[in-house]
Amino acid sequence: SYVLTQPPSVSVAPGKTARITCGDDNIGTKSVHWYQQKPGQAPVLVVYDDSDRPSGIPERFSGSNSGNTATLTISRVEAGDEADYYCQVWDPTSDHPNVFGTGTKVTVL
Amino acid sequence: EVQLVESGGGLIQPGGSLRLSCAASGFTVSRTYMTWVRQAPGKGLEWVAVIYSGGNTDYADSVKGRFTISRDSLKNTLFLQMNSLRAEDTAMYYCARQIQNYGDYYFDYWGQGTLLTVSS
Description:
The complex is a heterodimer.
Chain A: E1 9-12, E2 18-23, E3 32-37, E4 44-47, E5 61-66, E6 69-74, E7 83-90, E8 98-100, E9 104-108
Parallel strand pairs in A: 1-9
Antiparallel strand pairs in A: 2-6, 3-4, 3-7, 5-6, 7-8, 7-9
Chain B: E1 3-7, E2 10-12, E3 18-25, E4 33-39, E5 45-51, E6 57-59, E7 67-72, E8 77-82, E9 91-101, E10 104-110, E11 114-118
Parallel strand pairs in B: 2-11
Antiparallel strand pairs in B: 1-3, 3-8, 4-5, 4-9, 5-6, 7-8, 9-10, 9-11
């Protein structure tokens, strides 16, 4: 199995845009899903299928995926967005189909 | 409303056994993929095991041969039997529902987690 590469940390000022990347060879050929995890809480799905949002997730959260990089973008960042973010893919060609990213800590300055 | 409630965690000595439970409501566990994901203290998410709707199972290499995932349709509950526990199994264990969308799968609901500590 393998893991998807994410930057360990991203810092952003309130009101600005945060971009979190998730890298792997040809990840653009897979669907990428993103989870937000606040301290002491379970993960929450924020983006699925590269760019779709579950109900209740603000439009400020968006995603894209192309080539070797998928990106979660958080626009107009708020203090409440401070959390760890994980990407995930379903890869049935792998030894084990569920693959998570290494995780990114988003700090709001 | 979909809910997942884990239980069964605790402090166990190395080499011991424990069974985690995940009681589901609002959907039928046997009709979907159900997964255990764990998170060691201060670490990232690690997929542990999945049971498919057809009953087949798959395990991470780190737990294969020691952990067994199963479900009880009558109780609508997911289980994780953990044997030969090691210190490195110490983690918060989450159960999660994994749903399909055009041949792809993601986790749409998660439980609150149950903490396992393996220590002498």
